[in-house]
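hey
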């Protein structure tokens, strides 16, 4: 049989972003385009450091703690610096919030009209074992004439774009500007992200659940009852468990295969663990754009109004029917 020739009309991320901008009729502005192109470059740069980490002595601790009181890894610090510098240099950003920095960064004298919230390297407890990690980001538009922290203390439904880059067996950037979700794979030889997953849609129901069940002892009854319902179903097969402990990887799999990812609040962590602005919101934005559902258990995640930039919220997201099943357990409990 015939062998298919390699594709020659590649859709690079830059080409994709430009065509979406044209579709919106914003030929003149293009600020969001330039901003997303800057994020694209940071992803390539971080990917290259993650890949070489063991070889160039980038594994291990940097010797400091971040805002959350967690040890910072050398790669956390480096990835943060890469993003802050590139976003600042883009000239398009007025406000930045990073998981690694306590205060919001207000870019002085910036004519930028966007705010970027990000976790430069999420899942970093996985780094030293070479397991997947990722960058998560969300973008808001500045409200007034200059940027301030109030511009990012806004619900996720006001984000104009969100995405993540996964550093795994391949490097994948997944992006939504509110026109569906599109996935790109880094071709290292070309140095370009190529569109490999156009129009990602989450299956309406999956067969996988992804929770840190080691915390079951602390979980509230609705979480445990829901988990029991999929492990000991009245009809059909029990769900499979998959939990990497890197949100980007666990959400990436959930977007592609379906199922449910959860990081609940529990008796020990009153708001859960995941940070609203730069973990929960971008992933909820992508999930909804892909046709799935993202809830705190009692509320749509994207409608939560953050009170402070590092605030947390419970997260359950994934296939529509799976998350609706979970919501019933919460509704019955309240
Ligand atoms: P981090 O920002 O300190 O890396 O923590 C966030 C990570 C997420 O990627 C992941 O979903 C979660 O923490 C895993 O937490 P746990 O180890 O408690 O299961
Ligand atoms: Mg994180």
């Amino acid at each position: 049989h015939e062998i298919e020739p390699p594709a020659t009309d590649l859709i690079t991320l830059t080409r994709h972003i430009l065509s979406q901008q044209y579709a919106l009729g914003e030929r003149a502005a293009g600020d969001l385009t330039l901003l997303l192109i800057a994020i694209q470059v940071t992803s390539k740069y971080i990917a290259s450091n993650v890949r070489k980490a063991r070889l160039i002595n980038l594994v291990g601790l940097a010797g400091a703690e971040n805002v959350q009181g967690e040890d910072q890894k050398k790669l956390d610090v480096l990835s943060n610096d890469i993003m802050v510098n590139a976003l600042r240099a883009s000239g398009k950003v007025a406000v930045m919030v990073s998981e690694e920095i306590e205060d919001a960064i207000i870019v002085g004298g910036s004519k930028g009209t966007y705010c970027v919230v990000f976790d430069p390297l999420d899942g970093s407890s996985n780094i030293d074992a070479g397991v997947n990690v990722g960058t998560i980001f969300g973008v808001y538009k500045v409200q007034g004439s200059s940027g301030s922290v109030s511009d990012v203390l806004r619900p996720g439904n006001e984000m104009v774009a969100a995405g993540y880059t996964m550093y795994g067996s391949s490097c994948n950037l997944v992006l939504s500007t509110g026109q569906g979700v599109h996935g790109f794979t880094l071709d290292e030889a070309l140095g370009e992200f190529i569109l490999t997953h156009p129009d990602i849609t989450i299956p309406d129901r999956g067969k996988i659940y992804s929770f840190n069940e080691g915390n079951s002892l602390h979980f509230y009854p609705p979480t445990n009852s829901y988990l029991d319902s999929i492990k000991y179903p009245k009809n059909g097969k029990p769900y499979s468990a998959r939990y990497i402990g890197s949100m980007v990887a666990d959400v990436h799999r959930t977007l592609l295969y379906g199922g449910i990812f959860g990081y609940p609040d529990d008796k020990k962590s009153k708001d859960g663990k995941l940070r609203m602005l730069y973990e929960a919101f971008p992933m909820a934005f992508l999930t909804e754009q892909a046709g799935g559902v993202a809830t705190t258990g009692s509320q749509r995640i994207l409608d939560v109004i953050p009170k402070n930039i590092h605030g947390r919220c419970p997260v359950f997201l994934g296939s529509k029917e799976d998350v609706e099943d979970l919501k019933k357990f919460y509704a019955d409990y309240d």
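Helices lie at 13-23, 31-52, 74-90, 221-231, 247-257, 276-289, 320-333. Residues 70, 99, 119, 122-124, 212, 245-247, 263, 273 surround AHM (ligand 1) (CB under 6 Å).
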